[in-house]
Design goal:
Largest sheet: 2 strands, antiparallel
Helix content: 55-70%
Radius of gyration: 18 Å
Number of helices: 4
Structural class: mainly alpha
Order of helices and strands: HHHHEE
Strand order of the largest sheet: 1-2
Shape: elongated
Strand content: under 5%
């Protein structure tokens, strides 16, 4: 049986000679690929870490008032079951950026 071809961003041989821009893109693509191949338990643990860090930053005042208000509003929406913006398998911050 033939060997499966790895995605370009997992090919260490290619990345050794790639430009810095391609290495950065490969790092991002690799993190996305790893997230897609994680078990549900691993994803849950990773999201828990994100929640803990976000809460720590909130307590330290690292969010500006707009971001803090948006996060609180989103949490209220989640509690009411009205969070239609986010997909259940992804987390978004107040600006709509997907956090992985």
């Amino acid at each position: 049986m033939s060997e499966e071809k790895k995605p370009w961003f997992l090919d260490e041989e290619y990345l050794r000679t790639a430009s810095d821009k391609m290495k950065i893109l490969a790092k991002y693509a690799r993190s996305q690929w790893e997230w897609e191949h994680m078990s549900e338990e691993e994803k849950r643990k990773e999201l828990e870490k994100v929640y803990e860090i976000r809460e720590k930053w909130r307590k330290q005042g690292m969010f500006d008032p707009y971001t803090l208000a948006a996060l609180e509003e989103r949490e209220k929406g989640k509690a009411a079951g009205r969070d239609a913006r986010s997909r259940p398998d992804e987390e978004q911050d107040a600006s709509g950026t997907i956090i992985l």
